[in-house]
Amino acid sequence: MDGTVLVADDDRTIRTVLTQALTRAGCKVHATSSLTTLMRWVAEGRGDVVISDVMMPDGNGLEMLPKIHEDRPGLPVIIISAQNTIMTAIKANEAQAYDYLPKPFDLPDLMKRTARALASRGAKASVTTDERDTSDELPLIGQTPVMQSLYSVMARVMNTDIAVLITGESGTGKTAIARAIHDFSDRRTLPFVTMTTADLQDIEGPARVLARVKGGTLLIEEIADIDLVAQARLVRMMDAPGEHVPRFLATSLVDLSGKLDSGALRQDLYYRLGGASLSVPALRERVEDIALLASHFLSKAEAEGLAHRALSDEAGKLIHDYRWPGNVRQLENAMRRLSLTSRNDAITRAEVEMVLGNQPDLEPVLTGEMTTEKLSASVERHLRRYFDLHGGALPPSGIYARILREFEQPLIEISLEATAGNQAKCADLLGINRNTLRKKITDLDIRVTRRRKLM
Fold first, then answer.
1. 0.70 surpassed by pTM
2. Which of 189, 239, 247, 197 lies closest to 218, judged by CA?
């Protein structure tokens, strides 16, 4: 790399690490713990790239971006921040930051981004800044790397017109993400309309939907559940939306590649909706966010008039270790029930166990003990819990295929692991044809690696 990098961070260790790494890469580095000093360097014409923290002793790095752009148009600014919320990502994007990385960041990744910024000197940011009310907290919480990555992609697609496909398990928050994309986009003053299969059952359905959305955002829920006739109507609507073109968002519980292969999903519809893809992680993929989410839901219940409650250490450990098959929705429902049923301010482990129903999910995680319960009884308990999670409403249609997939995929993965990745042995173990196994591996997107046999 060739150029001068200005580093502003109140953490001495970060300044030292970045200075050493950038110097070894061939850059000149000026590092400071003061935004005032940074702004003086910028005004003097120093630096080809800026790397700045947000919260500094003498100001806010994001708030300095308009002044930097005024003084030095085209100077790339990379924002790094320990305030790892979607709002930070959105504000960095709106303020025309060249890039944004949450702390703790990956140093090689930051070095690559710095190299790209140096190579792009003089290029102007393409995002326009506007004033918007961000006082209301978005319904998205998470500080884990997987959520930070999701926030970053959301911020980049927020004010584009491309369609976005949002995938993830039930209860992960797909609809909340769609709503956030709308509420903090340039279309936020226009309607947000949710469309289901029922809206496409007659030929006039698309026209009625377009009349409601009026150029705002149209969310198509569970695209995989729409039949082929309705899909054709949707394609025609997307191709000729009329005078006021809406922003199209879609959600799906399942990987749509299998639907394409089986012919259950039109390719032209898939490609129209797949301009950008957001994969929402299951709660088990971001367990370090569980405590943060639980605390938020308890505070939310208190704000709604319920008693103040907090998790005891033992209750918090149980909440952390539980598998949460119903994801964030199940966690929110559990916290609300605990707010209602707990007798004291500190929620006990026993109270958590009672709310979760002493379900089998708890035991393998915490004790490693085997259960003598029949598989059918365990499956029945899980299914009843799944239905209960939806309250008085029915789960989304297509439950038969989803449940079979949930059972089939781990069965094949564990069998492959037990046979060290030998597909012939695995097929024999399962009692199915080898070609059938290969097709299922492809359809379920199972990664095959040769692993040590299970003992």
1. no
2. 247
- CA pair distance 385, 401, nearest whole angstrom: 18
d(CA 172, CA 279): 10
Helix axes 86-94, 145-157, angle to 10 degrees: 30
Q: Give residues with Cβ within 8 angstroms of 172, minimum separation 6.
A: 280, 281, 282, 283, 327, 328
Task: Tell me if 6 sits within 8 A of 37, measured CB to CB.
Answer: no
The full 3-state SS of 309-322, as one line of letters, equals CEECHHHHHHHHHC
pLDDT digits (tens, 9 = 90+) for 255-296: 788 888 888 889 999 888 888 889 999 998 899 889 989 998
Q: What is the pLDDT of residue 188?
A: 87
H/E element, 346:
strand 346-347
- Cα 219 to Cα 107, 178, 182: the distances in Å are 38, 7, 10
Alpha carbon 359 to chain centroid distance? 27
Quick check: helix, strand or coil at residue 225? helix
Structure tokens at 233: 């109507």
Contact 269, 241 (CB under 8 A): no
Task: Round to whole Å and give the CA distance between 264 and 273.
Answer: 15
- β-pairing, 276-279 vs 28-32, is unpaired
Distance CA 285, CA 415 (A): 22
- pLDDT tens per residue across span 118-162: 887 654 433 333 333 333 344 477 778 788 788 878 888 888 899
Residues 33, 37, 41, CA angle at the centre, nearest 5°?
125
C-alpha R_g of the chain: 25
DSSP state letters, 430-454: HTS-HHHHHHHHHHTTPPP---PPP
Residue with tokens 């405590």: 291
Cα-based distances in Å from 15 to 100, 165, 168, 372: 17, 39, 38, 57
E-state strands within 127-188: 164-167
CB atoms within 10 A of CB 246: 26
Please list, residue by residue across 194-223, b when 16 or more beta carbons sit within 10 angstroms of its beta carbon and e when fewer do: bbbbebbeeeebbeebbeebebbbbbbbbb
Which has the higher per-residue pLDDT, 124 or 420? 420
* CA pair distance 28, 159, nearest whole angstrom: 35
- The whole-number pLDDT of residue 131 equals 33
Contact between 163 and 104 (Cβ < 8 Å): no
User: How far is residue 250's CA from residue 163's CA, in Å, rounded to a whole number?
Assistant: 8
Q: Which two tokens stand for residue 259?
A: 């639907």
Nearest to 157 by CA among 89, 256, 77: 89
The DSSP 8-state label assigned to residue 48 in this structure reads: S
What pLDDT, on a 0 to 100 scale, did the predictor assign at position 366? Answer: 41
